[in-house]
UniProtKB/TrEMBL annotation:
Pfam families: CBM_6 (PF03422). Residues 55-172 form the CBM6 domain. This is Carbohydrate-binding protein. It comes from Haloarcula saliterrae. Residues 1-42 are annotated as: Disordered. The lineage of its organism: Archaea, Methanobacteriati, Methanobacteriota, Stenosarchaea group, Halobacteria. InterPro entries: CBM6, Galactose-bd-like_sf. PROSITE patterns: CBM6. It comes from the Archaea. Residues 1-13, 23-42 have a biased composition (Basic and acidic residues).
Amino acid sequence: MGDPDDRRSEVTRQPDGGVVQRGGERRGRDRRVHGAHEQPGIERHEVPGTISVGAYHQYHHADRWNAVDTPLSGDGEIDWLASDEWLAYDVYIQEAGTYELTIHVAAADSFGGGDLGVVVDDDPLRRFEFGSTGGWYDWKEVTTAVDLPRGIHTVRLVVFEGGWKLKQLEFR
């Protein structure tokens, strides 16, 4: 994704006023990104359906652990996502159309909420924000609509503003 002040970034504006930026320097899902961890053996997820947050095929941790490959937990929630991190999921979308994407998040009042983007095969689709949920274990559902193509794709959640927890994604 790109920096809003970076003139090389392309910006996609959404009908609701949200924007998703597309950076030019790292494109293509076959390249290993510095600071990324891959989980072999994760099966492709069906859409519509529910995806456990730990069932990602690749996670970029923004040098959280000094670029050491450290997997996130496979079950439960992901503790404290930081800005510039992302999670990628391989999916099979059964039918092209508009889907409701619901994410389950928790954010303490002291950290506020979050800002994230949804990207499919390097194409930015949606950027949206949410506020505090009241605490680290006060889970809230945040929903947005995304248009998805039929077939095998990679869906990536990109964290623009971190400091929150993520539990699962639902496509309906």
